[in-house]
Design brief:
By secondary structure, this protein is an alpha/beta fold. The chain has a single domain, classed as Glutaredoxin. Helices cover 33% and strands 16% of the residues. It has a six-stranded mixed beta sheet with strand order 1-4-3-2-5-6, with helices on both faces. Helix 2 links the parallel strand 2 and strand 3. The chain is elongated, with a radius of gyration of 22 Å. The chain starts with a strand and ends in an 18-residue tail after the last helix.
């Protein structure tokens, strides 16, 4: 992908890996939610102060790469007085669609009308494997507090195993499924019962 300053980056390796990020989709000719999204996130950036660009990174990805050149994105960022630590990105349309889909930012309305895209903000701690979605047009104070609480809660988190590395899930036996779905709320197997005597055996 290409940032508003003309630098070429790999989205995962350079921008996501090991970082705490906030990502949204915009385009500079938008007449619906994008101007409001950007204005609100500028306020969030100011509330977060110098943490943005240091331990929290903002990325806005254009869904109109044919028009949104790095120069157009740079002018858009300047128009909203965006501070350091926030990249506006463009690239190949198929790459942008893939990233949007993988991040859970794409919607069914995108295909028919760009102005139908959802004003969502995906917040993630890639190292901890923790992600959450928020409205990008929420109250800036609330959004800033949510971001800080989310990231600070995972500051010392250890990396979690990827779903891709987990392998095949165990195939529970019929008796185990029956016990878990019908009996486990009240009974344990051989370890007593907090609700009364162990009646399982």
């Amino acid at each position: 992908m290409t940032a508003q300053d003309g630098s070429v980056v790999h989205f995962y390796d350079d921008l996501l890996k090991g970082k705490s990020v906030a990502v949204n989709l915009i385009y500079t000719r938008c007449t619906a939610s994008c101007p409001l999204e950007t204005a609100k996130l500028v306020q969030v950036q100011r509330l977060l102060g110098d943490r943005v660009g240091k331990d929290i990174f903002f990325y806005s990805i254009s869904i109109d790469p044919a028009h949104d050149t790095p120069e157009a994105l740079k002018a858009y960022a300047a128009k909203y007085h965006v501070g350091p630590g926030w990249l506006f990105l463009t690239g190949k349309e198929e790459d942008i669609k893939l990233i949007a889909k993988k991040l859970g930012l794409s919607s069914l309305t995108d295909a028919s009308n760009r102005d139908g895209h959802l004003p969502s903000l995906m917040i993630g701690n890639e190292a901890a494997g923790q992600w959450m979605r928020n409205s990008a047009v929420d109250n800036p104070q609330f959004l800033a507090m949510t971001i800080v609480n989310f990231f600070d809660g995972y500051k010392n988190a250890k990396p979690v195993k990827s779903y891709a590395e987990m392998g095949q899930l165990p195939d529970p036996r019929r008796g185990e499924v029956l016990f878990r779905t019908r009996c486990a709320a009240c009974h344990t197997i051989g370890k007593g019962n907090a609700l009364g005597p162990d009646l399982s055996g």
